[in-house]
Every structure is written in C-alpha cells, then in structure tokens.
C-alpha cells in the first residue's frame, strides 16, 4: 500500500503541478482556437434589400434584390429573390390616363411590402427606370410623359421604402447596365475574366454592348462607356437602336407594306390563314413610323398572312439602312460598330422568342435554324392555334415575324456569321437572377461594385484557424519540453525507493 503511494509520488504525471500545467495548457489551446474561430465567424446573416421597377414599353416588372448586410462591397452576392410582372401594358400606354399608370403598380408594390422584412423597409432603396416606351412618349408628347412620371412618383411615395426617384434611362445606360448585370452574375468582373457581350431586345429598342480589343473609344466616342471595376478598366462599346425593339420593328415592316394606303395587305411574316382588321391610326401612332403615314388611307386595313420566311426576311431587311457609313465599319443606319468579339448573352425578347421557337441551341448551324423557322412560318395559322392553345394570341401571331426579325438583326444588322452565331447564348437568367439592366443599375447606384479590388485577408478563414491551432500546440509542446530539467528521472520500471 505504502509502496503504491510512493510510486504515485515519484511518477511525474501524478504530481499536482504537472496536472495543473497540463490543464492550463489545454485550456489555453482551446481558448486560443476558440478566439480564432469566433473572430472570423460570419455574423448571423442579416440581409439588405433593393427594389427596381423596369418600366418597359410593353410591360413593367418589379425585381427585389437581396445581399448579406455585412458584404456590401463584395460581388457575386447580390441575388434576385423575387420578381413580379405588373398587370396591364407599360406605363407609356397610360398617356391619356396617367393616374392609372401609378395605380397599375400597386399590386406588385404590395407584394414587395410583404417580401421585404418590415424592419428593413425604410432603408430599402426603390428605383423606377423607364426605357424606350417612355423615351418615345417623351419625344411624341413630353407633357404626357411628365404627367405619367408624376403619377408614378406619387404612387411609389405611398410605400414605406426609400424611394430614389423615377427616370428615363438613356439607351446607353440601358445597354451598359445590361452588360454589367450579365458579367456580374457570371462573376467575370471581380475575377477580371474575359467579359460576355450583351444583346438585349425589348419591345421598342434594342441594345448591343461588348468589349472589343480594337475599340478604344476614339472612333465614335458616343458609343463608348468606361468602367473601372474591381481594379480593372473596361472600354465598353454600346449602342441602343430606338425603334428597333421588336414591336416597333413590326410597325416599321407594316408601315413599309401600307405605304400606299391599301385596304388589305398580304404579309409574309404572318401565317397563312391569319386575318385581322387593324386601324391605320393605331399603326402610325408612334414616332418610329408617324412621318410615313399615307396621305389618303382608309381608317382600317385587313392584315392577312401568307407565311413565307424568305419574303419576310426581305421586308425586314428593308427597315435597316446599309447605304451610308462614315466610319471604318458600321452595323446599320450609319452607326459605328467594331468587330464582334467574345461570347454574347442574348436576353429579354431574344430569349422569349427563340425559346418559344425551340431555337435556343446555337450549336445548330445557322442555315438549319433558318430552315426550321421557314418551316414554322409556313405552318397554317389554324394549325398553329391548335398546337399552342395556351399561348397569348398576340405573341403567337407574331412569332414568325419575331424569329425572322431576330435572325435578320443578328446577321444583317450586327454582322454575326455562321461562324460567330454559336458564340451567342440565348439566356433568361443567370444563377436565378434575370438578365437585364435592372441589377446593374442598382449595383451602380448603391456603389456596390467598387472601382478597386477590395482588400481581402491574406489567409482564408480555415487556413487562419489551422495555423493558430498548430502554433498553439507547438508552443505547448515546447513549454513541456523546456520543463525537462525539472522532470524527475523516469525509467520504464517504476522506481521503488
Ligand atoms: N412570352 C413572351 C413575352 C414577351 N414577348 C415580347 O417580348 C417583348 C418584351 O420584351 P421586354 O424586354 O420585356 O421589353 P420592354 O422592356 O417592354 O421594352 P423596352 O425595353 O424596349 O422598353 C415584347 O415585344 C413582347 O411582345 C414575347 O414575344 N413572348
């Protein structure tokens, strides 16, 4: 019994001082590592929100964006959490009843009130940007356009958000912010990767934006937009063609066919068997065609179809002017365009139309795409209606024209060839956020994309914790070893004195 006690006393691991040192050492290591972990632990996720209303020519859409509150300055983190399509037409269609433009937004705005946490309402910026529909109304009747804005302004102020104003975006802004959106969502900006070009087709205007290595902005400076994002400089080429959105382009082809004021037209861009009576006054009620209105026209014309892709393409081509170009090279209408470069994302109506036509796969050779479209256009209207009973009548009647317009705009207008056509990707969204100008617009106005690359910690979180742990353990072992002179002689056999 006494021998056992003596053995315990001589074994260093049974000495109280050794036990205390070990316990303190372990506590110190645990404390050190805990501090290291907690110091860098992301704060409990709190989100901030932003709301953008896209007041387009054909409709208005509301988008809610969300990002972690503590990461305002990082990219790849702002996401679209919700979108709402406003019922009814675009706000520019309310020129004769402006009040209704404001009222039309109420339903989507109420949805936003429910979607954004209440305590964030007052700090959530709300923007309304109007595009080509309001640009045209402003040209046609600026006082009507002002009244629409006034009504929209008053309606939006009723909501608990931080309303930042409603305004018309320039075509250049629309193109440039669309480009920012697709490249931000693809995480190309922060990483400084080659960027994607952006092709946006709306109802009243269309935009093309891309970076070309042989464009420095010196030729046609009005097409140049400079950005410094995350420490990289971008010299962007962008152009917006007003009246070349697909609804206004359709008007132009119809104006082309009704120049002499006929009572009926046989339109190759509409299906055989399609026939509808339309009003001259409505067709020519747009600055894109108003100056071409025939002098002696009846009040209506019968719009009938004959479904011929090749003839349709000829009419569509006639709305582009290729005769003059004062620059080294042009797209159309005398507008400068550098060599197409890089992959392109084509969104909005490009996607709606090509998706309906099942032609989003651009690895299908262009000639084959044209054949498929020609076949679709040649399908009689009664058959098309039977085949797609749930598609909105207006869209359905126009898809042959729309597809032909898209292919003509891309190949004849922008000079895409059979070789470069596969560089286009028809997209609706990227990582759950819709492609379009709205996200880029909000990122810009909230300064969420810094000009310089944000400083990042030299080590990632996990690396930092590992190093602290290893150093702590080494120090402890070193400390124990340094105590060696005070260790009693220990042999394998317990010493019996
Ligand atoms: N399923 C759908 C939905 C929309 N569209 C068409 O797509 C265009 C709308 O595109 P959008 O980008 O929403 O245009 P807006 O914003 O309204 O127009 P803009 O940007 O020119 O003001 C319209 O011509 C509409 O007829 C379509 O063909 N099929």
Automatic annotation (TrEMBL):
The chain crosses the membrane at residues 16-38, 462-482. GO terms for molecular function: apyrase activity; ATP binding; GDP phosphatase activity; ribonucleoside triphosphate phosphatase activity; UDP phosphatase activity. It comes from the Eukaryota. Its cofactor is Mg(2+); Ca(2+). It catalyses: CTP + H2O = CDP + phosphate + H(+); a ribonucleoside 5'-diphosphate + H2O = a ribonucleoside 5'-phosphate + phosphate + H(+); ITP + H2O = IDP + phosphate + H(+); ATP + H2O = ADP + phosphate + H(+). GO terms for biological process: nucleoside diphosphate catabolic process. It is a multi-pass membrane protein. Keywords: ATP-binding, Calcium, Disulfide bond, Glycoprotein, Hydrolase, Magnesium, Membrane, Nucleotide-binding, Transmembrane, Transmembrane helix. ATP binds at residues 203-207. The active site is at residue 174. Its main location: membrane. Its EC number is 3.6.1.5. One of its GO terms (cellular component) is caveola. InterPro entries: GDA1_CD39_NTPase. It is found in: Membrane, Caveola; Membrane. PANTHER family: ADENOSINE/GUANOSINE DIPHOSPHATASE, ECTONUCLEOSIDE TRIPHOSPHATE DIPHOSPHOHYDROLASE 1. Catalyzes the hydrolysis of both di- and triphosphate nucleotides (NDPs and NTPs) and hydrolyze NTPs to nucleotide monophosphates (NMPs) in two distinct successive phosphate-releasing steps, with NDPs as intermediates and participates in the regulation of extracellular levels of nucleotides. By hydrolyzing proinflammatory ATP and platelet-activating ADP to AMP, it blocks platelet aggregation and supports blood flow. Belongs to the GDA1/CD39 NTPase family. Homodimer; disulfide-linked. This is Ectonucleoside triphosphate diphosphohydrolase 1.
